[in-house]
Amino acid sequence: MRYPNFTAITWVTVRTIVVGAGINGVTAALELTRRGHEVTLVDPGPLPHPLAASTDISKAVRAAYGADEDYTELAESAIAIWRQWNVELGTELYHEAGFLFMRQRQMQPGDFEWESFELLKRRGREVERIGARDLRERFPAWNAERFCDGFFERQAGYVESGRVVEALIERAKAAGVQLRAGSRFVALDEGGKPAVILSEVEESHDGTFKAAQLAPSASLGMTRMEADAVVMATGAWTPFVLPFTSPFFRAIGQPVFHLRPKQPEVFTSERFPVFGADITSTGYYGFPLNRDGVVKIANHGPGREMSPDSPERFVTAQEVQRLREFLSWSFPALADAKIAYTRVCFYCDTHDGDFWVARDPERQGLVIAAGDCGHGFKFAPVIGEIIADAVEGKENRFLQNFRWRPEVRAGAAKEAARQSLSS
User: Fold this and answer.
1) Per residue in 19-74, pLDDT tens?
2) Please, are residues 223 and 10 in contact by the beta-carbon 8 Å criterion?
3) Taking the CB of residue 121, how many other CB atoms lie within 10 A of it?
4) What is the dihedral of CA 147, 150, 152, 153, to 10 degrees?
5) Contact 257, 293 (CB under 8 A)
6) Segments of 278-337 assigned E as strands
7) Rounded to whole angstroms, how far apart are CA atoms 423 and 281?
8) DSSP at 202
9) Order of strands across the sheet with 9-13?
10) Up-side HSE of residue 63: CA atoms within 13 Å toward CB?
11) What CA–CA distance (Å, rounded) separates 402 from 392?
């Protein structure tokens, strides 16, 4: 390959390189270190990276996955470990507030909500069917005239995602992971053993690293880092930093809103758990009032395809209007709530909605761990083990679903809760 015009290259050899310190990268680094690997975790910083999908106030945790038993089982395992992590980390970052899924029509076979409810019942999960009367009495922020049927998944909730990543990075450093924050991935060196080319990112006066303008700079130098294995956990940046993966992945931006309700008492977790509001039709889901008095609502829908570094990475006036219209008939008490903050959360979509955790058959030692499809964070406690098994070539039944699969074309399947891409 031809390198950028750098004045010098420093050559370094390590055992295992993980590129990207979001949730996939940091959990992979932790698990590989636990298995005896010498791991270097690379990220441009600052950490948690402000543009990463992981970096937000909350992510949903649920076992409801329609009729999909594999993801349901994986989520059940993750929820059990989320509880353990609360104890191990010494703080409650997973909040088991429950998850309320409601529809504007009666649930029936084939619906995401119906299939989820029936499967969770069969698996012995704590689920309760909720009608309009229950909704009106127990969850008063909802418009019970509009939503008539659904269910409450008690053993579910949300995690404080940005704080989780921060805590896991500290745990990784304590475990012996070599954290190389301030290094930007430039390219793979495909000339022999697995290797990456890194450039240094300019450090700010406050000791952090600039999140913007991360183009390679000749004045800051470049490093070639060789390893036995390289894990690329670069999220929605994957098809851009590894152009040969662009046929497999799409970067999709979704609008996220933080609202300050005028009646905060109606939006506490006891009265307003995590929700999906006819989610396969509207795309909208959200979270109860957090410690800062914010209700977060986001969309799990078609989104906008663009680069995560696009200058158009902002919530549009049209997306705000759509939110206001949705709130006016779903949660009237939020209809004119002040929008305190907006961001665009990026999905790394695969064509079939399954994650992509697989060895590259054409590049020695390369594993790609991507394809979150907007529903990956809940699996943080189990995804590191799956990635580590891919690195070591071990059997793991979930790796069959997450395999290298360039033959899959768009529209084969998708995550059951997601609003139809054709709506």
Assistant:
1) 999 999 999 999 999 999 999 999 999 999 999 998 899 999 999 999 999 999 99
2) yes
3) 14
4) -130
5) no
6) 284-286, 295-299, 304-305
7) 8
8) P
9) 9-13, 222-226, 195-200, 183-188
10) 30
11) 15
